[in-house]
Amino acid sequence: MKKITEYSQGDDNKKLRKILGQFATGVAIVTTFGQDEKPCGITINSLTSVSLDPPLLLFCLSKSSGTLNAFKANSYFAINILDGEQKSISKDFARPNFDKFSNVDWDISQHKCPILYGNIATIECKKTNEFDGGDHIIILGEIINASGHESHDPLIYHNGAYKKIHI
Ligand SMILES: Cc1cc2nc3c(=O)[nH]c(=O)nc-3n(C[C@H](O)[C@H](O)[C@H](O)COP(=O)(O)O)c2cc1C
Description:
mainly beta; 7-stranded antiparallel β-sheet; 3-stranded antiparallel β-sheet; 3 helices; 12% helix; binds flavin mononucleotide
């Protein structure tokens, strides 16, 4: 079967993005507080479960993100896994230079991370390491506490578009 998009090293990376976009993922918002005491967060789909013993996860953060300094400075962060109904919140948190917390209710967790109402799971982490990952940094965190719903449908991202699935 002929593939529609093909990529070789050195080609336009838009093609690569399209091919990697075939990997369907959930969507999460990772949050922390900035040094100015303002809540801060970013939409991600690079969340990966790494280890259960000890409990570790990672996400990749663009070096050009406006949130980079906050995540570098703060030892704690929270992962908010989004519900299928939270597409507009995902879009808000993917907008640079935007008051991202203006359209969502939120609370503060035990280790002082913003927690978004309506998410399907909350995972609070202590940052244990940062690695260089090209134009991103890879942030590894140990899970301190987590809670989740069992019966909610997640928001999905695939091929550059949001989708909902009914599980
Ligand atoms: C579905 C989706 C997934 C994304 N995943 C990531 C990611 O894993 N890492 C990242 O750095 N940016 C990711 N982005 C892009 C950022 O959300 C966006 O560039 C960022 O929020 C810009 O605002 P900032 O400069 O305040 O961070 C994603 C965007 C979308 C829509």
